[in-house]
Structure formats: C-alpha cells, structure tokens
Amino acid sequence: MTFARILFLSIIAQIYLLSSSVFAAQPIKIGALFAITGPASFLGEPERNTAQMVIDEINKAGGIKGRPLQLIAYDTQGDTTKAKQLVNKLIKNDKVVAIVGPSTTGDSMAIIDDVEKAGIPLISCAAGSKITDPVKKWVFKTAQNDGLAVVKIFEYLNRKKITRVAILTVSDGFGSSGREQLKAHAAKYGIQIVLDDTYGPKDTDMTVQLTKIRGSQAQAIICWGTNPGPAVIAKNVKQLGIKLPLYMSHGVSSKKFIELAGDAAEGTILPSGRVIVADLLPASDKQKKNLQAYVKDYQRHFKVEGDHFGGHAWDAVMLLKGAIERGGDSPAAIRDQLEKTHNFAGIGGIFSYSVQDHAGLTKDAFVLVEIKNKDWALVK
Amino acid sequence: MVFSEQLAQYLVSGVTTGAIYALIGIGFAIIYNSSEIINFAQGEFVMLGGMFTLFFLNVLKIPLPLAIVLAVLSSTFIGVLFERLAIRPLKKPTPLGLVIITIGGSILIRGVAMLVWDKDTHSLPAFTGSEPIAVAGATILPQHLWIISLTILSIVLNKLFFQYSIIGKAMRACASNRRAAGLVGIDVKKMVLFSFIISSALGSLAGIIVAPLTMTSYDVGIMLGLKGFCAAIIGGMSGGLATVLGGILLGTLESLGAGLISSGYKDAIAFIILLLILFVRPQGLFKKADTERV
C-alpha cells in the first residue's frame, strides 16, 4: 500500500467521522441497573422491558431535541456487590448522565455513596423509604414508600372502627420494612397490634400462625409479603374458617395472587398502585390516560399486561425525559430539573419533588382495592 | 378459643406436613440403602412432579387424574436418565464424588425447569374440593386426607414390595451387603436403577399431592428435599416405618415450635434436630447401633 493511498484513506475516514458527528447527533447515555435475573427478577424484568420500550418510543418520535437516548442496562441479579461494580462501570466507562434503578432497596442503598460522589442523578425503582429519607442530593425514587400503603390501610380500618389487628409479615426485606412501618404508624391511628408474627418466604403452611391469631383478640389480619406466601395464607384462613377480614400489602397487587389463591382470595382488601385498576378509574383521574396507554403498550410488546413494577421504570425514564427537555443533558442540570418536577402524572402516582422530598408521592398514590369475582374492584 | 383446640390444630398441621416429609425421606432412604448414595437431587423430583402435572393440565389440557399419572411417569423417566447419565458412568464412585454429582444434578434440573417453564409460582386445583372438615376442634382440608392416605398407601405398597417381591428382596440384599449380593448373582447396577425409579416416583407423587396446598415453582425442591433428608436421618435411613415416624416427628415439632415458641425458629428447629441426631444418634432415633462383627 503506497503512502498516498494511506493518506487518501485516512482523509476519507476523517471526513466520515466528522460528517457523522455533524449529521447524527450524539446519543444521550442513560444507565440502568435492574435485577433482571435472580430472586428479584419479578421486579427487574418488567422494569428493564419497560425502560427499553419507553426509550425506543422516545427515539422513534425524534428523541429529545433531536438527540436520541441510549439505554445502557446491566443486571445486578439483586446482588449488592454486583450493583456496586456495575454502577462504577456506568459512571466511569460508559459515562452516563443519569441512572435509573436499581430494583431493590438493598441494591439502591449500596450505590448511593457512588452516585453522590460522582454527582450523577439516580432515580431508584425500589420501595424502601430510607432511600430518600433523609434526602440525598443526587438520589430520587419512583416506587411508593411502604409507609403510604400502611397509612391507606389504617385509614380504612379507622372508618370501619377496627382497632385491634394481628400482623403477619414475611421474614425478608419487604416484610420487615412493612412490619416496621405498621408498628410505627399504629399508635397515630389508634390501632393496637395484638399479635405480631412472621413466616418464612419459602414456608408452605401458615395454619400455625393463623391458629394463634384465631385465639387472639384481633378484629382483622394484616399480611405483608410477596407471592406465594400470602396466597398460602389466604387459603389457610379459609381452611381454618377464620372470619376476620384479611388485608394484604401492595406486594400482591397482581393477577398472580388471584390465580394462586383462587376462591380464597375473595374479599381480600389491599392498597395498590392505580395501574391494575386503570380501566375502573373515573375519567377525571389525571393518571388514567398514561396508565391505560402504558398497560396496552406493554401488552403489545410483551404479551402480558404492564404491572406497577414496570411502571416504576416508566416513571423514572419519563421524569428524566422531562428534566432533560427543560434543562439539557449535564448531570447537574438534570438533577436540578428533577427536583423541580411538579404534578407529573405517572404510573405510580402524581410526582412532585422538592428540596425536602425526593420520593415525590403522597398516600393518594395508592387506592384500596377489593378482590371480587376474581377481579379487582375499587373500594369507595 | 381454648388452648386445647389450638394444640389440636398444631398437631394436625404437624402430622400432615410430616407425612410429606416422610414420603420424600423414604425416597432418600431407598436410594441410600441400595447404593449408599445420598441423592440430594431427591427434592427436584418433588418439584418435577408438581410442574409436570401443571404442564399436562394447563398446556396439554389433559384431565387431572391422567395428568398426575403422566407426571409421575415423566419424573420417573427423568430419574432413570439421571441415574444412567450421571451416576452409572462414574468410574470410581466415591461417596463424596456421588454427593457432589447429585448436588450438581439438582442444580441442573432446577435450572432447566426454570428455563423450560418459568420463574413463577403456580397453583394446582385441589383433588376434591376445598371445603374444610372439622376434626376434634381442628380443621383440615380434603387435600390433607389425600396426603395422609396416599402416604400410607405408598408406604404399605413399598413394604409389600420389599418384603415379598423377588426384586424387592434383591434390593434388600444389596442394601445389606453389596458384594455378597453381587456374588450370588444379583445385578447390583440394575438394583440401583430400580431404586432411582422408585424414589423418583415417590418424590414426584409427594410433589403432586402437596401442590394444591403449597403451590409449586421451579425452586420448591430445595427446602422440601432438605426436610425429607432430615426425616430420613431421624429414621436412620430406613425405608419403612422409622422414616415415616421421623417425618411426622419433624413436622409436629416444627408446628409446635412455631405455635408455642416463635414461627421465626421453624426451619431452625428442623436443622437443630438434624444436627443433634447426627451428633448423638447417627444411626437414627429408632434403631439400635450396628455392632461391628469381627
């Protein structure tokens, strides 16, 4: 190859590189950490699917001010060590401007230090209230705090004049957080916890705990867990002929619970995000349009209805989109604009962040639903 | 509610859970006795039973009774494959090597089940309705009666098989002395295969009859397998009544412990018993110690 030829080729290459940077705008890189596999995959999988779906749609519609978004998603497997390695990879190698996820509270807590130090905004999709309490400068979240669900149940109990409850919580992160919140809020609502018991996430028979509850003074049972435990509990309640009303957490607000518990699920009341009852909401509801669009969209892409877990990622990406549209793509500008988000009607609720509040939701993010005829009904 | 009624419920819950542990435990014991292998993949056959039934019932739309039979057959077939492909080819079968192979096999079976089916939990319909039945102040479901009666039936059949059939006798011969059995013309390898057939069939049956109560998913085998193993250890690895008693004892202690002390300790109780037995009476609770004859 002659020298002239090499020169010629390198000039061509130069022109090509220049032109591509001029004509096709640089993508805005957004990082994502989700527990796509592993025990929390029921959160991470719909979240990853949703984030990719939303970003593809934004790009199809011309991106943000002509610049496409690029999603760089990694799988934490619900493992805090992996989350920590991957967040550094996102920040240092991929040079993302913002991060959505992680899926679990444990993973989120593990990486807070890293994003705070690097100054990269993080929108967590996990529920634990300690993620944004106390407020951290760079950390936001979209999943509803457990405490809000507890308040929703307690308000209803007050209306029903029920004051003595038995709580039955699963002995994992979700259950112990729920247990803390139940105990923390009880006094304020004049509710007395007469029996406080737990069960293991893999337990297959809870008649023993329920027998204890049957022998107590409780007027209602509140169970805090994710499938399949609560379905076993619903069946056991029926088996033991316990007539007390059964309340569940938002951890079972999917059709899966009804499928698993069958007839035993009838009459169970639980707080839930609006996504599962999108079609039942009054037309005046601000979230209704987005909810229905999301559920249908997800169904078209992935053959199952969108759930509230995927909704957390929808909210995170859309919140970022709004912030970038308003303030540009530098991490600091995104953070400042996120904090100014006001009345954004998402999937999880209506978000209004502020300097004091990086969780952004009120108890109205939840509605109470009752299971009737194997389907959801709104509790008025 | 009076304390005696509570106690009755704890005992009933314990016995029904214990029956399942017993059924799984016997599977462990049968394989151990004919081949000295502790088959840690036993729990996976419990899972396969439930998942296959679900598959035949929901995907292929086969009626429940037939789906159950097919599920037992399919799981047994996997048991045969497992013995043929993973256990038999081993040139120098050391106990440690075999244990590691069965653990590896269980991880493989679980992983394949997760990929072929899914990660979700599923429920099977109860065999005959779900109206609770009152028994001495406690309530049980028709499914519990199925569990207890099928457990008794399979134990009786087992006993008859091992006591009176020629294959059963040959297997017992292997259990008492492999070399001698081989010398009198018993095909020891075939007996090992038979033991895998019987125990995978029993395991899958256990998985099927509990699924309507406890649900099933690709990973139910781990805990149930370990509890079955505990039952077998308490029973001193006997293929008969001792393991059944072991299972029922374990189930009852678990439910009494959870009811009277704290439900947080439920699994701990099982494993404390396991350790105690292994330390103090490794030959099992109901057996006299083997005497060394010189």
Q: Would you give an account of this structure?
A:
The complex is a heterodimer of chains A (380) and B (294). Chain A contains twelve helices and 14 strands. Chain A starts with a helix and ends with a strand. Chain A is α/β, with parallel strands linked by helices. Chain B has eleven helices and two strands, in the order ααααββααααααα. Chain B has a two-stranded antiparallel sheet with strand order 1-2. Chains A and B meet through strand 7, helix 7, helix 8 and helix 9 of A and helix 1, helix 8, helix 9 and helix 10 of B.
Terminal Cα span of chain B? 61 Å
**How many DSSP-defined strands of chain A?**
14
Rounded to an integer in angstroms, the radius of gyration calculated over CA atoms of chain B is 19 Å
Order of helices and strands of chain B: HHHHEEHHHHHHH
Number of helical runs of chain B? 11
Measured by DSSP, the beta-strand proportion of chain B falls in: under 5%
Oligomer: heterodimer
Low-confidence stretches of chain B: none
**Strand portion of chain A, in percent?**
15-25%
Shape of chain B: globular
Structural class of chain A: alpha/beta
Question: Strands, helices and their partners?
Answer:
The complex is a heterodimer of chains A (380) and B (294).
Chain A: H1 3-23, E1 28-34, H2 41-60, E2 69-75, H3 80-93, E3 98-100, H4 105-118, E4 122-124, E5 139-141, H5 146-159, E6 164-170, H6 173-186, E7 192-199, H7 207-214, E8 220-224, H8 229-239, E9 246-248, H9 255-261, E10 269-272, H10 288-302, H11 308-327, H12 331-339, E11 344-345, E12 350-351, E13 367-372, E14 375-378
Parallel strand pairs in A: 1-2, 1-3, 3-4, 4-5, 6-7, 6-8, 8-9
Antiparallel strand pairs in A: 10-13, 11-12, 13-14
Helix pairs in contact in A: 2-11, 3-4, 5-6, 8-9, 11-12
Chain B: H1 3-35, H2 42-59, H3 64-87, H4 95-116, E1 133-135, E2 138-140, H5 142-164, H6 166-176, H7 178-183, H8 188-214, H9 221-234, H10 241-261, H11 266-280
Antiparallel strand pairs in B: 1-2
Helix pairs in contact in B: 1-5, 1-6, 1-8, 1-9, 1-10, 2-3, 2-4, 2-8, 2-9, 3-8, 5-6, 5-8, 6-8, 9-10, 9-11, 10-11
